[in-house]
Amino acid sequence: MAETITRATNLTLTERLAEKMGAIIQATTVFAPPVERDGRTVIPVARAAWGFGAGGSHSLRQGQGSGGGGGAQVSPIGYIEISSDGARFRHIYDARTILALSLGGGVLALLLLREVRKLISHRQQDETVVATVIETTTTDVPQDANFAEMPVS
């Protein structure tokens, strides 16, 4: 017991946080115990993410202080199904993820359509300007003009 206390006090705050997080988050956090039924074994699989941070300061006027914290997030992503046919992983689709991807795709499609519409509008305006210039230049030249007899300046 005394050895554990001595060891814990020699660790930095960050090392103590990492040690506590490591004790909490294990392989069972990601892979739940298998469930067996009707010749099939199902192993639930989750995605686990964790992080921690710590900091401290020392000031002659105000003394010293330190603090830290950490957190973890675990979300189911699928399961491994084992049967006589073999083993395969099956995804579980989260409704929030599907909704976010659908909304993101819809916004992207709207932005793309808007840009295509702008390009088509600009192209039509350019063609109108070119057609007007061609009409203007052809109407300014007399039909019976002889360019061979015109003086060159």
Question: Could you describe the largest sheet, including whether it forms a barrel?
Answer: 4 strands, antiparallel
Average of pLDDT? 76
* Residue share in β-strands: 25-35%
From the alpha-carbon coordinates, what is the Rg to the nearest angstrom? 36 Å
Which regions have little confidence, pLDDT < 50, spanning 5+ residues?
1-6
What is the succession of H and E elements?
A: HHHEEEEH
Give the CA-based shape: flat
Number of helices: 4
Number of domains: 2
Distance between the ends: 109 Å
Task: Look at the helices and sheets and give the structural class.
Answer: alpha+beta
- Percent range for helical residues? 40-55%
Give the number of DSSP strands: 4
Q: Spatial order of the strands in the main sheet?
A: 1-2-3-4
Describe this structure in words.
The structure is a single chain. The chain is an alpha+beta fold and 153 residues long. The protein folds into two domains: 1-92, no CATH class; 93-141. It is built from four helices and four strands. It has a four-stranded antiparallel β-sheet. The longest helix has 46 residues, at 95-140. The protein starts with a helix and ends in a 13-residue tail after the last helix. The model is unreliable at 1-6 (pLDDT under 50).
